[in-house]
């Protein structure tokens, strides 16, 4: 309905009562603080501080594909974003195209109507002749379209209680000092009154642009790109957002095979790019946009060029840019010392391919050398870790569990080194292992072999011990690795990464493991779907959930929750129950494999075993939350659980009563997270039914849930625990970082050889696998 009303706005008189603007001056204190103008923002994350923003809408953004009329849905979403930012306390200005297209639509309609009337009068209502439209002059179209375009903007912004004002300018308005001052004063006053100025060149009277007419240090107004840049600098805007019909700036014309989107563009880089053709409408082009952007950047205004026509992102492209997300091309004057994350990923991929081609002994040698370095350089590691610990304790905002994970000790480093040496042994027969051999036909042999996944992105919080573990697993599996650690462990991570690269240098693959130290947001990293093959989050359940939501087309290996159950059966041993329940809950309550729900068979209630369980939990200071059924059995019950699907991550747990093993299984299937679940019983038949029926990644009989760990499983280390239904499940070690490929070796075979007219037959004989590595074939 909104778009239907808006499409008629140029022909329906506006009701002045509905267009009363809030002509209130801005309060002294705003949600967005004003900053001193003079230098542009150095990083995308700083764009959140932008107070005054110019949004330039190119012709391709505003107009429809047929170039006759406006793209109303697209325009409405842009208006909504601008109004939202305006209501946050920012000062928004729009430089818009579209008057010519809107006018062309109106004039064509009027001409067709006039011609049809004349044809009808001359032909006596006979069949109308074919009517051809004359070529419409752009200035006339602009004159006819300006009023309708402005009425459309006014009607749209009114929906958000936002007032607008039209400002038409020409090049002369910037060359004449008095006119320029008047324009500046007018715009300043409009912004002060919380009005969104909508600026456009007065195309009805503007002369054609003169080539090479730029003055010394001043850009001339040739199109709306140069107008937006000039206006942004004149008004000391913090940010210029130029929306076009391409994703941003590419190193070569978009659509070509080698074209790559440039995330950040620096002055001086223009010689390294090749410009393509102009957009389907408008008088500018990417070259004009880059020139205008660099001029604005030099004047102290940050610039982002992005796509305003993609229906997948149009509804949030402007707000995403202001929030600092990686959208389009960001222009920056400050070039970072190190490579970009895209360059790091490319380097890791190239080095990873070399790593995968090394002999297993060489990969094992790298891992063993890293294990040696962890003990030889422990003073350097512990000194860096002390710096991180002091900063974390001084900040005072990290919980005690995270402080514990952040801390390293000589014993921890020794334990890490032992785990790495276990991984080195496993690396001997990992990559290139032949899993299956089949003789398809005579001299046609098929093999299925293990290969690396490709490029892994591991995101971990304040747990520096994760870095050497994951690095060793990636080296052993021949995968390239991108690491993004928590800032709390930045000093420790830097030293550990340096040691990792030192170990990798033994065989010339230093770049296979990269530490992302730039100001990349996790959400931005998760969008690199063409560069990263698998994301592995290591941290809180909230971190995992955030990454699973943010990942765009990249598989995520992990679990969002660790709601682990321990079921105490009627035939359970007293000693085993106390030991297992205590260890499952109290050994490390923050771990994902800690018990969160204790299920008790009904027959155990009001028995000495039940009393011992309660006494032990009280002694360990575990807070009990009663499930609804357990609460019904008690006169004075503990606090009732708000949810039976809760991961407490602390000395708390839920306790509930069930009537049987089957009811326990049903409860776990309904409320669990398919992580790790335990049965305690002396009845083998009951235990086997539990182990068979329960669909979790780890299912234990008479053992603590804390055994769900790669090190305890003998994997050397783990990259995480997965509750996924495909690929790896449970603690993921070396095997979980491998996939397979099929290798077929023939002798000129073709599919036609096996047709009804061919001379060959399929054999499909399974052959013994007698070698460990592909490429080292036996004689059979």
Q: What is the gyration radius calculated from CA atoms?
A: 34 Å
What's the total number of strands? 24
CATH superfamily of the largest domain: Acetylglutamate kinase-like
The geometry reads as: globular
Q: Name the beta content range.
A: 15-25%
Largest sheet: 8 strands, mixed
Strand order of the largest sheet: 3-4-2-1-5-7-8-6
Please identify the top-level CATH class of the largest domain. Answer: Alpha Beta
Helix fraction by DSSP (H/I, runs of at least 4): 25-40%
Separation of the first and last Cα atoms: 74 Å
Q: What is the domain tally?
A: 3
Number of helices, where a helix is a run of at least 4 consecutive DSSP H or I residues: 24
Show unreliable segments.
Answer: 1-31, 214-218, 279-283, 774-780
Please name the CATH architecture of the largest domain. Answer: 3-Layer(aba) Sandwich
Could you say what the CATH topology of the largest domain is called?
A: Carbamate kinase
Family: In the N-terminal section; belongs to the glutamate 5-kinase family.
GO molecular function, one term: ATP binding
Function: Bifunctional enzyme that converts glutamate to glutamate 5-semialdehyde, an intermediate in the biosynthesis of proline, ornithine and arginine.
Subcellular location: Mitochondrion matrix
